[in-house]
Amino acid sequence: MQTVEVNIDQLLLDPNNYRLHSHPRYTEVEEKDIANKMVQKRTHTMIEGENREGIKDLIDSFKTNGFLRIDNILVRQYHSPKPQHSPAPLYVVIEGNRRVATLKALKEDMEKGFSIGNVDERLFHSIEVVVYEVDDEAYTLLMGLRHVSGIKEWGDYEQSELIMNLKQKYGMDTNEIAHRLGMTKQAVKKRLDSFIAMEKFRADEEYGEYFTPALSGIFYELMGKKDLKEWLGWDSELNDFTEKARLKRFFGWLSPGEEDDETGVKRPPIIQRRDELRILNKFIKDEQALDIMEETGSIYEALEQSAYYTQEGFKNNLATIKKSLDKITMTALLDMDKQTEKEVTAIINTIDKLIAGMKRVMRTE
Question: Which domain of life is it from (predicted)?
Fold first, then answer.
C-alpha cells in the first residue's frame, strides 16, 4: 500500500460496487469500460440518488465541517486496455465511493458558482488516497469486514450522550448537530429526549441503582411512542415528564421486584427489551390491563386481557374487511367456482349469526 495525492478527476467511481447491486438500473460493467464517461456518469447518478438524497447527509456534513479524513479512501490503479487521453494515472475507488461522489458533486456546484460551504476547493486538485492492489477474493473480504461484520456501532446510550454533549458543552442546537453529523433533526431530537429520560431514571432515589446502559434501547424506543409519551406527560417545551407518579411507576417496570418469600429471589423486571415496550404501547391507556401486568409480572398476559387493545383490534379488523369487500367486483362474484362459493356462503352465515346476536343483546338492554 502507498499513499498518493491525486486530482479528484483521476478517481473513477466503481460501477460494480456492492452498494449499487440492488439498484433497479444496475448492470455489471467490464473492466475495460469502467473509465467510460457514460458509465461514470451513470454510476454517479445511481450513488447520488434522486435529488441527491443518496449523498445529502455527506453534502450537509462536508459543507458544515469541511472534509474530515476519518477513514482512508482506498483505491486501486486502473490499467486501461484503451489509450488514455491524459498521462495522469486513473484509480478506481475501492472504499469511499459515496465520499468521492459527494466531492465530485460539490466540485460541480463550485464550477456553477454555488456555495460549497467549508469545503476547501484545493481538495479537488489534491486529495490523499491509499493505493491498495487487491484481487477479487481480497476485495470481497474487505467489503465484508467493512460493511458486514464492520466496525461495531455505538450503543444507544453512547450515541445519545455524545449528542447531548454537543448541545450542552458546545452550545449546538438541534439543527447544527443534524448538519454536522449528517442526521435528520427528528433523529437528533429523539436522541436528546431519550438521554433526558435515561438521566431521570439514573437520578431516581428509589430505582436509579437499576439503570444500566443496556436499558438505553428501551428509552430510545420510548421517545418514539406517541401513546406512551402522552401517558407519561412528555412536554417537549419543558423537556420533562409532567406525570411524575406515572413516571415512577414506569421506572418500577424496568426494575426488579420484591423478593419472593420462599425463594428469596427478586422478581425480574416486567420490561426487559425494547420490543416489549412496543407491546406496552398498545394498551398503555387500559388501566385494568396495567394492573394485570403488575400483578402477574407479564406484559403478554396483560395484552391478552386488555379490553382497550381488543376493541382497537376489532375496529382495525372491521376496516380491513370493509376495504377487502369494496374491492370485490360483480364479475368476480359471477365467475366464482364451487369452492369459492362455499367460502363466501360461510362468511355470509357468520355475519348473519353476528347480527342475530347483536339484536338479542339490544332487546335485553
Answer: Bacteria
Selection from 291, 328, 288 nearest residue 308 by Cα: 288
* DSSP string computed for 138-198: HHHHHHHIIIIIISPPPPHHHHHHHHHHHHHTT---HHHHHHHHT--HHHHHHHHHHHHHH
pTM for this prediction: 0.64
Of 150, 181, 208, at which residue does a domain stop?
150
Q: Quick one: 33 and 111 in the same domain?
A: yes
The per-residue pLDDT for range 220-265, each reduced to its tens digit, is 999 999 999 999 999 999 999 999 999 999 999 999 988 776 777 8
Sign of the CA dihedral 208, 209, 210, 215?
A: positive
Which contiguous run of DSSP H or E holds residue 128? Answer: strand 127-131
pLDDT in tens, 262-293: 777 888 999 999 999 999 999 999 999 999 99
The parent domain of residue 350 ranges over: 328-365
* Cα 351 from Cα 295, distance rounded (Å): 37
Query: What does the radius of gyration of the chain's CA atoms come to, in whole angstroms?
Result: 30
- Among 94, 121, 150, residue at a domain's last position: 150
**Domain match, 161 and 282 both:** yes
